[in-house]
Amino acid sequence: MAKVLDVINVHRIYESAAGYTHALRGVSLQVSRGEFLCVMGPSGSGKSTLMNILGGLDRPTSGTYKLEGLDVSELTDDELAELRASRLGFVFQSFNLLPRATVMRNVQLPLVYCDVPRSERVERAVKALHAVGLPPDYYDHRSNELSGGQMQRVAIARALVNDPALILADEPTGNLDSATSEMVMETFSKLRARGKTIVLITHDPEVCEWADRTVHIRDGKLLTDEEEHALHASERGNT
Amino acid sequence: MKVRDLAVETWSALDANRGRSALTVLGIVIGISAVIAMTALIGGINKALVGELGLSQAQLVYITVNTGKPLTYDDVDKMSQNLTDYDYMVATSMGSGEATTGTKKASANITGVKPAYFKAMATKFVQGRAFTDAEEGKGSLVVILDKNSVKTLFGDADAEVVGKTITLNNNEYSIVGVTESSGEMYAGADSVSLLMPFSTAATRVVGNQEVGTIMGFAHEGSNMESVVKKTKDYIAATYNIPESEREENMYVYSMQSMIDQVNATMGAFSLLMSAVAGVSLLVGGIGIMNMMLTNVTERIREIGLRKALGARRSDITRQFMLESVLLCVSGGLFGVLLGYLGALFLAVIAGGALMGESTRITPVVDLSTVLMATGICVFIGVLFGWYPARRAARLDPVESLHYQ
Questions:
Q1: Looking at this predicted complex, what is its ipTM?
Q2: Where are the domains of chain B?
């Protein structure tokens, strides 16, 4: 299967007054089209940094990152913006919806930045909202009138609306209770079934059960299979 | 990002902060209303001067000569033959008296005029007619009033008074016409202005054939300063007035200089208003910048989100820039309205004080003024919106998404 993501030996070093922080120490990762990958790690493991780089919001200090064969590490700011507009969809832990805007306007927002004609926007937004299973009664509600689960589904619809190559989800269930989390994960699972490529970042092992594959990140590195077995063994030992 | 999308985004952002936006633009509103009030008022006053007096009035020169021996009508004829800058020269004689109509009484400024006066002054009649040559020849007991005098003597400016009589120094005069305005700049409320044939005034009021003020009308487009100077030189030469006595014995005064004087007064006034406008626009602009900076800080997460969804720096810059420009322009348009109302109010006060009761000033706001005001607002919006917009555009998407 064709690779959507091809990350080779990526490092990310932050420079600050306090000195250097080595957030990613040589991460390599491949994701095939239609795959649902879960990146799991505790806070401080570098998973957010990885997410930012995968989402074209940050650049690796060294190493290459290719999205559908395009070398993202070489792009300018504007080209990165265009990449985010056309090929990436984001789902955030805190939803990040425009609170006063309606569901429809929120979902259509990414289309504003990739110059989709107005006539097409509503149709695409409705399709995306349909895919996440939000009833049409809610389309004209303001987003701050919705429940957490509904908000996250609107956010997923927003991530879907530009038909991206990759959907990136950063702790999408972090602010939700377990029943709602399950509903949101079902939504991701349905998208997976429809052939969407998804990379989901979390610290919650239950969430990872929905994924095709899980990789663990610790101290800026992905664990090898052996390390993973060792980790599982120690976790079992603890319980 | 398309213009229409930009407009929608901007509008919803401004709409979300309606109260704050309104307060913030107050400085702009005040600044622009000062500019508008000023230009509207000056425009109105100029129009009143030119319109009320007639365009020809700018070419009008008042000439009074004091040689010890009064001038006669022959002197005027000679003068008009020698001074070729004038289209007409009309002699008037001035006198005063007390006018009564049954119940009302008022002191009267009486001007004796030849029939040519009306043509030269382009007098507008609201009732009746000018004097005829026959009336001038016979010295008939006829008068012409202006609307204000009709109001003073009959209680209503629009009263039908042609054919009625008024009593002046024990003689009964019948009214043959009413003019829109006497052209008297400083008519008081309790005095009236009357015109009567030159010959009538000479025999009944002034007492002899002597000429009072001469009114000369220079050719259109004449340089009034040089006309006044030539006139002075002619008079000084003809009546042997030495250089040292010119000031006191010769009075040659063009309406243009009167208009210039009003304009000079207006100039000082407009300088003051410009200063007020400038300061409040500056303060207003800083207010806008402050609000936009607050806006940017409040919306850091939104900016991060927009960037994550694919907004380029230029999209963010344009969005915040347009917000600031729209804010300023809406404040400016409101200021235009407020300024016009202010000018209407000032016109009532200034009109009375500056131009006499008879003159009504209608403030003039033309399209170019409104466009200029809008232009100023756009400029302020761009100037003071630039820094906040740039700050917004340069925010790091990762940091702004996680900003608390």
A1: 0.91
A2: 3-53+259-401, 89-211
